[in-house]
């Protein structure tokens, strides 16, 4: 396929993927929360409430967009986009299957992290720009949270880069070919703390996406809706979609780094078009299993406090991830044949 | 230092136990009742708004217009009128209005009635868009029921 | 831009209005917070948004007509309030209550206390950001409401007690239902314990957060679980026994720490103690009348000043009656526990972070209509 068409096709696919994910993850979230709490969840709109996200979307779109008094018009309008756009951009380097990737960038990992930090900026500016006291507090929390989780996350990522010798996401997945025990999470021969490293990465990605139990920036029982307090209609809707797109990115990254990406658990990989489908199937299965865990976690725990997150980060996550880095380096150096 | 690790391990364990509990409930049947689709039978003692009890023979209300319910009501939401009629002992009820907007369903009226003429109804789907919907004419309601 | 950012540049603090509409205040309570960043410099609860003149109503209604008002003050433990008022009037008018009626009062009040504590438990965890325990607690609470509905005819504002007795007698299905419920709740408590109490996030959020010293609790007149969480061993049921409470064997949970966790633990332990009381009461339940033989027709207490306190779910609820011998009170003073419990919030929350202060506020178990009355 000629290059420009390929790119346009991917852009359409990625945007549709992000949008549908946001819509139907909300549905999953509400259904999942419902069943965890022993109720049904949405059921009125369409079969099993499947049309509920569309009804929600129409509701959000028909709401009046207005600028609160005292808000900064530019920042207020730009902030939702600053959350949404980087998330969509990040999808560009995610390998859904071996050949099913928009751009195989050599520094894909770096690119995702670069875009991920824009997300925080979006929340910060949105909170600040709306000129609401609760939103400003939420924005300030966002920044302090940012410091807390990015360090252990990056240290863990560096460990993985050290193991695979590449920042190309597709290469990282290829390095985990074969049986499921070749996935990085089970590679105790590389580092004894690999499962712990996965946990650290997963916890940090929860914090990165402002998900419970680290949703201090939203904290509905303390700060009404945190940074989103003043956002009407689709302004809020875009924030929401961005949040879910970020969850998908975070989980996709966990799957790629630790759970073997599009690799199936058995050493079997058909060639050609079937191979694309096969890889896609395994990637999405793992991805949605992780996303379900994220939802599951949200409906289980109370919210942490941001100084607790700092405590957790500095006293637990950073030391362990640093230790893991050194341990991995030693193990690679001592047993280079592995 | 050992306290640190102890807390770390027990804390992580507590988190997984929590996940286990919610995960278990995820697969258990729902306990909620789908209210507008399912009709709930009220218990015999349910205190709905009051209604008049008809005389078994004539079907007319048993009320003798003594006005005790009106007097006993804390929120003054009952108003009733009666008239003397030829050939009937005592008074005959002509109007019994319950202003349900101020009624607090305390049941003082039912208790103060010495003639057993009023009781609690079992109606509970009483939502309405207008205030006037809640000014109940109990005689009319009684006729509609029978 | 105007407003927030154009205040005096040298001013370091800002005013944050928490409420009157805010998810954490559970009602129309407004707390005026002076904030330095996210630290609270000063907090001032502003009351009166749901003031309904219950005391004045008591002066204008006959004694019996005030009964439905009791349930509307603290709608979560309506029966305790009913009990407090009824007992005060009985003391004033010298009405004897049959023993069976007293037992029924104790059983229903304790069931109501459990339902109130369960709801508080859920709402408190909701304040801390955990949604699911609320609905588990509601699941259990529904059972209590069903039980109480079958006896009293109502699910929230029961209005079950009458001067000299209770309105309805219970039947066997209520007794077996209650026993089954207790069995069920006993099984559920370890689940709550594992899901919430032992959860490391919850422990970190509550332990050593929002300490209220014994002295502070005394100064503000705090009662109930707030006082018992601060090490004050006081429970009206035990120390000024009324009704038939002196016949039961139960403990008063007291925690010395005074932090939010202590108040949490007091309430969770009280659920267990209430279950014990109910079981004993069901075992000992005497046969007999539920109203005095000579029905109470017209209540006219002698001239005088009377007081009766009961232990409601939130603390000591006192009713002071000044009677001039007519069929309504000359003065009716209602001492509501959360009013005192809330008063200490200003002092206790000074210097705390906002989320911690809200955890403290949640642990006080506020019911706003009861504060404003």
What features would you describe in this structure?
Chain A has 338 residues and is an all-alpha fold. Chain A has one domain (69-334). Chain A is 67% helix and 0% strand. Chain A contains 11 helices and no strands. The longest helix of chain A is centred in the first third of the chain and has 34 residues, at 3-36. The longest helix of chain B is centred in the first third of the chain and has 25 residues, at 2-26. Chain B has helices at residues 2-26, 68-72, 108-112, 138-145, and strands spanning 50-52, 78-84, 91-99, 118-120, 135-137. Chain B is α+β, with helices and mostly antiparallel strands and 146 residues long. Helices cover 29% and strands 17% of the residues of chain B. Chain B has 2 domains: 1-31; 50-145, 2-Layer Sandwich (Alpha-Beta Plaits). Chain B has a 3-stranded antiparallel beta sheet with strand order 2-3-5. Chain B has a two-stranded antiparallel ribbon with strand order 1-4. Chain B is built from 4 helices and 5 strands; from the N terminus they run H-E-H-E-E-H-E-E-H. The mean pLDDT of chain B is 82. Chain C has 373 residues and is of the alpha+beta class. Chain C has a single domain (55-344), classed as Cytochrome-c3 Hydrogenase, chain B (Orthogonal Bundle), CATH 1.10.645. Chain C has helices spanning 54-60, 67-73, 78-93, 99-127, 132-152, 172-197, 200-206, 214-219, 224-229, 236-239, 260-284, 337-343, 345-348, 354-363, 368-372; strands at 14-18, 30-36, 39-46, 161-162, 165-166, 304-312, 315-323, 331-335. Chain C has a 3-stranded antiparallel beta sheet with strand order 1-2-3. A 3-stranded antiparallel beta sheet of chain C has the order 6-7-8. In chain C, helix 4 packs antiparallel against helix 11 (260-284). The longest helix of chain C is centred in the N-terminal third of the chain and has 29 residues, at 99-127. Chain C is globular. In chain C, 53% of the residues are buried. The interface between A and C is medium-sized, with 35 and 35 residues.
């Amino acid at each position: 396929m000629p290059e420009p068409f390929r790119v346009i096709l991917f852009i359409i696919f990625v945007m549709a993927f992000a949008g549908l994910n946001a819509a139907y993850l909300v549905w999953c979230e509400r259904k999942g929360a419902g069943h965890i709490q022993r109720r049904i969840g949405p059921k009125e709109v369409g079969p099993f409430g499947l049309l509920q996200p569309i009804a929600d979307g129409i509701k959000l779109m028909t709401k009046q967009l207005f600028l609160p008094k005292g808000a900064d018009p530019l920042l207020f309008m730009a902030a939702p986009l600053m959350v949404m756009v980087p998330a969509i951009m990040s999808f560009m380097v995610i390998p859904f299957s071996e050949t099913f990737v928009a751009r195989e960038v050599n520094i894909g990992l770096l690119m995702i992290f670069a875009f991920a930090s824009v997300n925080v900026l979006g929340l910060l500016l949105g909170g600040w720009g709306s000129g609401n006291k609760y939103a400003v507090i939420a924005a300030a929390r966002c920044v302090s949270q940012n410091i807390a989780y990015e360090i252990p996350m990056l240290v863990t990522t560096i460990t993985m880069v050290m193991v695979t010798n590449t920042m190309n996401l597709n290469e990282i997945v290829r390095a985990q070919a074969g049986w499921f025990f070749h996935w990085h999470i089970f590679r105790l021969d590389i580092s004894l703390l690999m499962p712990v490293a996965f946990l650290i990465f997963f916890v940090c990605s929860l914090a990165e996406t402002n998900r419970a139990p680290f949703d201090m920036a939203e904290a509905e029982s303390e700060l009404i809706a945190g940074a989103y307090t003043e956002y009407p209609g689709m302004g809020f809707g875009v924030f929401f979609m961005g949040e879910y797109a970020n969850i998908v990115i975070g989980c996709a990254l966990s799957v790629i780094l630790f759970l073997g990406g599009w690799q199936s658990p058995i050493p079997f990989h058909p060639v050609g078009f079937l191979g694309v489908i096969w890889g896609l199937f395994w990637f999405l299965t793992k991805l949605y299993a992780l996303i379900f865990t994220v939802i599951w976690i949200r409906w289980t725990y109370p919210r942490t406090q941001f100084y607790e997150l700092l405590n957790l980060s500095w006293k637990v996550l950073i030391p362990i991830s640093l230790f893991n880095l050194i341990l991995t380096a030693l193990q690679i150096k001592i047993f280079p044949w592995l | 230092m050992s306290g640190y690790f102890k807390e770390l391990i027990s804390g992580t364990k507590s988190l997984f136990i929590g996940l286990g509990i919610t995960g278990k409930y995820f697969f258990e049947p729902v306990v909620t009742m789908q209210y507008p689709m399912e009709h709930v039978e009220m218990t015999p003692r349910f205190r709905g708004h009051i209604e008049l009890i008809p005389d078994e023979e004539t079907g007319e209300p048993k009320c003798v217009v003594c006005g005790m319910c009106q007097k006993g009501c804390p929120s003054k939401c009952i108003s009733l009128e009666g008239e003397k009629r030829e050939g009937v002992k005592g008074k005959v009820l002509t109007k019994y209005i319950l202003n349900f907007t101020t009624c607090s369903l305390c049941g003082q009226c039912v208790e103060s009635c010495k003639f057993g003429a009023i009781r609690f109804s079992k109606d509970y789907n009483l939502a309405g868009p207008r205030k006037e919907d809640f000014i109940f004419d109990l005689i009319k309601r009684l006729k509609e029921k029978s | 831009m105007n407003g927030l950012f154009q205040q005096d540049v040298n001013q370091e603090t800002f005013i944050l209005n928490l409420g009157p509409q805010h998810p954490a205040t559970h009602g129309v309570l407004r707390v005026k917070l002076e904030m330095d960043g996210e630290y609270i410099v000063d907090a001032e609860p502003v009351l009166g948004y749901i003031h309904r003149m219950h005391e004045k109503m008591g002066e204008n209604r006959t004694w019996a007509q005030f009964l439905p008002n009791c349930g509307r003050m603290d709608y979560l433990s309506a029966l305790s309030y009913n009990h407090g008022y009824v007992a005060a009037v009985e003391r004033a008018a010298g009405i004897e209550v049959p023993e069976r009626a007293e037992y029924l009062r104790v059983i229903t009040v304790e069931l109501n206390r459990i339902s109130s504590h369960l709801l508080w438990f859920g709402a408190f965890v909701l304040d801390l950001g955990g949604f699911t325990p609320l609905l588990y607690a509601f699941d259990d609470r529904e059972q209590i409401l069903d039980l109480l509905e079958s006896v009293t005819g109502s699910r929230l504002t029961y209005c079950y007690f009458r001067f000299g007795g209770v309105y309805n007698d219970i039947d066997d299905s209520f007794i077996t239902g209650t026993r089954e419920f207790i069995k069920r709740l006993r099984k559920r408590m370890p689940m709550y314990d594992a899901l919430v109490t032992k959860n490391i996030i919850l422990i970190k959020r509550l332990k050593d957060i929002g300490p209220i010293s014994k002295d502070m609790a005394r100064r503000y007149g705090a009662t109930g679980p707030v006082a018992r969480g601060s090490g004050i061993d006081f429970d009206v049921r035990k120390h000024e026994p009324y009704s038939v409470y002196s016949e039961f064997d139960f403990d008063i949970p007291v925690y010395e720490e005074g932090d939010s966790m202590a108040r949490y633990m007091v309430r969770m332990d009280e659920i267990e103690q209430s279950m014990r009381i109910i079981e004993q009461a069901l075992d000992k339940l005497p046969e007999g009348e539920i109203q005095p033989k000579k029905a109470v027709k017209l209540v006219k207490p002698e001239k005088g000043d009377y007081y009766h306190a009961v232990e409601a779910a939130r603390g000591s609820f006192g009713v002071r009656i000044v009677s001039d011998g007519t069929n309504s009170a000359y003065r009716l003073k209602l001492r509501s526990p959360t009013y005192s419990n809330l008063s200490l919030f200003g002092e206790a929350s000074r210097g705390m972070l906002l989320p911690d202060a809200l955890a403290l506020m949640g642990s006080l178990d506020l019911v706003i209509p009861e504060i404003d009355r």
